[in-house]
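Hey all, sorry for the wall of text incoming. These are the two entities for the joint prediction.
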Amino acid sequence: MNPAQIVEAVLFASDSPLRPEEISRADESLNEDSVEAALHQLRILYDESERAIQVVEVAEGYQIVTRAEFAPYLERFDSVPRPSRLSGPALETLAIIAYRQPIGRLEVEYIRGVSSAGVIRTLLDRELIEIVGRAEGLGRPLLYGTTRHFLEHFGFRTLDDLPRPEELPVILREPVSILPDEDDEQGGSDPDPSQEEMTLEAG
Amino acid sequence: MTSTLVQPGGDRDGILVVDLERFQGPLDLLLHLIRQQDIDIFDIPISRITQQFLKAIQGVAPENLDHAGEFLEMAATLIRIKAQMLLPRYGEEVDDDPRAELVRRLLEYEQIREVVGILSAAEADRARRFIRGYVPPRPRASGRDQPLESTWEEVFAAALEVRLPDPRDPTHRVTTREVAMEDKITLILSTLESVTRVEFRRLLDPLLGTMHGVMTFLATLELGRRRALRMRQASPFAELWIYRRDPSDDPWPDDAWPDAPGPDGPTNHQPDDPGGIQAQSPTEPQETLQ
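and here's what came out:
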């Protein structure tokens, strides 16, 4: 048995994406590098032999999936389970959390302009977001962040697959916190010395 | 988002027919009004937009107060900005455009809508790639361990539910170790050394906890299994009698059981024994359950 075969078997049997170091646990002869090499080999093999499946990189790992062009055939089968699509409010809330994590419920609601407790609970239940900590300040509000399953749901490798803020048509300065005692924002995109006025000049 | 805006000619401000259900919230609606009319977002005609916004939300159903409140809050913000712009400003405030924060929020929201489009496309693309036996994430029951985030009302309601201990309840427990069944076995055997039979109830100390009762019962069953005693009970929930069982008597045919002793039988417990609260008229054992 060669490494590519072992990797193929492990990926085939897995329900979720596997990281190279996870795959390498299958056999003592494997290490991260040999798994990466085997994955590369598999991808070429699947491409060249025009297989209906492919190896994709998703959620910081690798997964065997069918190629997108076969979706019409598979969709005819009710028995083929498929992920359910998210609602508008759910996508909106996820978008905010993905870019501003860690972020609390009140800030999400301020950005959306509508209450969001219900949709946050749904996203938690679906394990698309998780509680990553608590903020300082009154009531020590919970802070949310996206999960690995979030990456999986959208087919992202990492959060870097999301366009950076400066790549979006609307350019914004750093996120503003509505919490009174958080003048020192950490994270966010390129800090700008003149961030106060940047918004109004961005157009 | 397609147009829901109707602007018949003549009226300078237009008559707006907006289906609010189609908007995610007040920011969405406001952004729609601005973009629809090609208004420069950095120079919003607050007066006109406020008027349009108020007209648009006239149809908000009052029964959906939460939803309506969000729109009304934005309306209040717009009116406040409008008022601030009418007031003369002095000194360092001159540079502060009262619209700045609203513009920032609108741009931020527009950016989020942009990301929503990207996420939606990614989701659709991902949905076309099937994994083997993909199991869609099912909503889990929220019974998982999660840090608590409660409103004050919830905390207050929970506080009202708390049942304070009855001060008359003479509960006084100093527990240093778990109840040992061996202790209860010793208790039963030593009791049966002085008397030939005893009501199960008398073995229980009402001042000790439930666990003692449970362990006493388990000890009784264990001794029964070891053939160290016999149990008799007239009927379900009747008094359980525990009999001494001498090895010399064994085997003891069921029909050879002695008649149940009466109140003047060989028991050394008095009816007013503090250990046995309800021992005035012990139920006569009549049939064997085991």
